[in-house]
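@channel sequence for tomorrow's demo:
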Amino acid sequence: MAVPDHDADEEIVWEGKYVVAKKRGRWEYVGRSRNIRAAVILAVEDGHVLLVEQFRVPLGRNCVELPAGLIGDDAGGEDEEDLTAAGRELEEETGYRAERLEDMGCFYSSPGMVSESFTLVRATGLTRIGEGGGTEGENITVHRVALDTLPDFIAAKRNDGCGIDVRMLMLLGQGILAGE
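structure tokens (generated this afternoon):
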């Protein structure tokens, strides 16, 4: 059975430096400009996970997330490899360097309204090389959280008014950690 509007022409309604608003038939959605993708880093080791907390303008508050960043967003970096970007972002945001980076596949965070994909990357062999905190103006707080305290950590952050990224669900389910 065909999905209504699946074959309608795609129309660009608005385009900024990083985001494009599109319409296809009755569907309205957004995506990344210039085919920019994202890398999300799952850095779990020794029973702990690295998380970041930063202010997110669309939410109007801080949000607890896995470290992540854009791939190929800098001029001249359009051909940046996913694992290279993930390693760079892990170091910038958390101050940790990974000995190994493993591509765990491409995922979509909210496919009913966003066409953006991200590559999930497992980082292991972690060594702290700096403070982290992101690039200028990001003001990222790094959290190294014991997995057995993660539900309480997330509940406390939620009670403090933080948003919680949907990717925390995979950590709470523990299924992805079976290979640790």
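heads up for whoever presents: The chain has three helices and eleven strands.
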